[in-house]
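[stage:ingest] chain + small molecule (zinc ion)
[stage:ingest] validated
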Amino acid sequence: MTPEEKELREQICDVGRNLWQQQMVAANDGNITARLPTGEILCTPASVSKGSLTPRKIAKVGPDGAVLDVTPPWKPSSELRMHLKVYKADERVGAVVHAHPMFGTVFAVRGEALTLRMLPESVIHMPEIPLAPYATPSTDELGEVVVAFVRDHHGCLLEQHGALTWGDRPQRRLPGHGTPGVHRAGQLPAQAGRRRTGTARGRDRDADRAAHAVRPVRRTRWGRTPVRPARPGRGDP
Ligand SMILES: [Zn+2]
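[stage:predict] done
[stage:export] tokens:
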């Protein structure tokens, strides 16, 4: 095993513990994969808590999903096929993480994408989290509904299921990781409350936002979201 593979296996375990500690997965929920420079994929095992991962439990598969290295009795996650679709869609993807973060899953169940501009940090780092239409878990179809978002987003909600994120390395793609996740976590109940309690306050905020001209951001990859130049005649805080 190369030092790089050893390190990547340990990183996957770290991400799993983090997901579990942050209560983004329950029981044996969630799955994590990472791509080696050789093109082979490291994958968390099925039916194992992400809080109890060890490097030895991680399976290695080929780009097509063929099992190359696994320690019995463990076997690759049943959601591996979804992950493989993401890697195939973009050669720059180095890691994929699936979890069931509570607030995000609420919106996934409601069938709503996350589009509210609430805080500057969330606007800059994660301006939009789209919703992939429902597909049955553990099928190729689930990967196919996600592929449309891979090149232009960091992640998406899976309708009536949970959340999926991808990036260049595992730590970058932990759902809810770092500042964007914190602010998104705050946005979720805010978005729910705004829609539930009527639109008066929401309209006020919309008007206020227009008055202050919060600048839209263009979606790019890997967290880099350059802000468009302000349009002539618009304020810019
Ligand atoms: Zn799931």
